[in-house]
Amino acid sequence: MIKVGIFGYGNLGKGVECAVSKNKDMELVAVFTRRDPSSVKINTASAKVYHEDALKDMTGDIDVLILCGGSATDLPEQTPKYASLYNVVDSFDTHARIPEHFANVDNAAKAAGKTCVISCGWDPGMFSLNRLYANCVLPDGKDYTFWGKGVSQGHSDAVRRIDGVKDCRQYTCPVEEAMDAVRSGKNPELTTREKHTRECFVVAEEGADLARIENEIKTMPNYFSDYDTTVHFITEEEMKANHSGLPHGGSVIRTGVTGVNDENTHVIEYKLTLDSNPEFTGSVIAAYARAVARLNKEGQTGCKTVFDIAPAYLSDLSGDELRAHLL
Amino acid sequence: MIKVGIFGYGNLGKGVECAVSKNKDMELVAVFTRRDPSSVKINTASAKVYHEDALKDMTGDIDVLILCGGSATDLPEQTPKYASLYNVVDSFDTHARIPEHFANVDNAAKAAGKTCVISCGWDPGMFSLNRLYANCVLPDGKDYTFWGKGVSQGHSDAVRRIDGVKDCRQYTCPVEEAMDAVRSGKNPELTTREKHTRECFVVAEEGADLARIENEIKTMPNYFSDYDTTVHFITEEEMKANHSGLPHGGSVIRTGVTGVNDENTHVIEYKLTLDSNPEFTGSVIAAYARAVARLNKEGQTGCKTVFDIAPAYLSDLSGDELRAHLL
After folding, report:
1. What residue in A sits closest to B326 (Cα-Cα)?
2. Other beta carbons less than 10 A from residue A175's beta carbon
3. Would the pTM of this model clear 0.90, i.e. be above it?
4. Residue B135 is nearest to which of A137, A139, A326, comparing CB atoms?
């Protein structure tokens, strides 16, 4: 059994917990939190909740520690720190800072003889893998990534900070016509506005100026001003009844040409339709936790990404079984 | 430069040649044939055509030899034989015999210090990879593979053997309603007949009994009797004008559930739409030829499949570049 620890018990931590329960060779041993442990109720009866401070003393009890904090401030500090004590998986998703994060984690993990995977999930993660495979198979081609329809937590939070807004759920929606043009092999040049629209469901405070709120949303730089945005004002009851999930997904598409005269076009599409973004992310992380445990046993230490790990390491089946049943 | 040799210059050999020309770090050195070399005209001016016999003397000239023969009789003999002289890639696709083929190639390659990849292409190949990744990420789920719309060479050949048939092109077509039911997460149980239909375009000999031909096609065991088949009789001119390509493709779909009460459904779909089956297969093979050359330099010998190779090996970019641009 691979003994798993989870640090951070928000949406992602709960998603990882669900995923671990689906893998028969894995066992959740402990959840670590910065909160008062007695205030955290988990779903796994056999696991215990500890304060973060206990992490320094439990290195013998856990094969892989999964870090479920945020990319802005938690992971840049936590992943290198705990890579010196544990094999670690994180879902660091600030694309621009990945090289720096990788170097920090790699140094810590190598010095301690530990194995780590950073930026694990679906984007970065499964989408990255599909970008890489498709680029290698079709070197003469063009990449497209569409996201949604799905809830963007960052955009929902941004709207919540507007004066008079009690709650918001923001959906990122791919433009179907743009996706169809890409799938047809036309290689369109698409602006930000042509690829995605944004849809906001907003609960306003009583008496708030709805026209002002709608205008503030639509003109917000970086988040909304480059998109066509629709704003719906709804009640708290409607929010709870219709927008309590965290669905997401999207498509990675690469089109490319082959042939003596580039006469043949090929389209590769990888598409995810997810009822729960954090549970699917947790499921990807669990598979890579298995790989991390196995790589470490083989002495392959340091920081890895999904690019560096042979797919067979993700499976609990043997090479013989994989070749017989999945090849 | 990775120096590539191709053995067998049919549709697949030509597809590999096109693919090599798209990879700037690869160079086609030679094409080997069992025919009279002077009868084989290739598209790469800088490469030469040799008889198969020359293969025993050219081990110093070629980094990776790509075997483009058939799976029925060519590859079971050729791949183990040449794995003792070269790093080799093949596209062996007789699923039931893969374990035996793997063992034969592995023994030969290990004894000679060579690195080989077998069963490389899109199915087996990219479809297998996607089955594996999706199974690892969603352990509680169900797999579906749909093929087409595309030309099946085996079914086209079977029809051509019927008395009175001059030519045939057979298309395998996925049933859209079945795919939509799968994509909706309904986990349908589908019979062979419910998943695919078959469509035949037939050129008959003058005066042939068309009703008899149609009946022989539709009732042919293994090939057609389990499917709903449509037969169109066309002229040779129509065949040439409308059915000269070798398009193919399909979808690997896995649906699975997560959550405390399995309340969330996820759908992973990998879809290929290919103008040319052999050129796309050749493109996958070229990427794995790069991996084989690199693995052999690192001393990782023996037989591999797509499951055993970390994706980064397929790319000519460095780890730093991949992390910065594709993760």
Report:
1. A128
2. 17
3. yes
4. A326
